[in-house]
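Lab notebook, bench 4. The sequencing result for the construct came back, and we need a structural model before the next group meeting so we can plan mutations. Quick request posted to the team channel:

Model the 3D structure of this chain.
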Amino acid sequence: MRETALRDLMRDSGMSPEAIAASLEISRVTLNEKINGRSDFKVSEVKKLQKALGLTDKQVLSIFFS
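Done. Here's the predicted structure in token form:
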């Protein structure tokens, strides 16, 4: 996973980390663990993140599957 790209998109979205975590139905701590590679994102969480941040399929593939 490309953590830097994801962090940049999250920052650019204007959403707080807490709001992003809430949209994924996880805690902020769990979100940080996933971003930092200590835990994996579930497919359902990637889909929710895509919707919350308005990511294209190409962005999702680039971030999570490159």
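The helical segments are 3-13, 17-24, 28-35, 43-53, 57-64.
Will bring this to the meeting.
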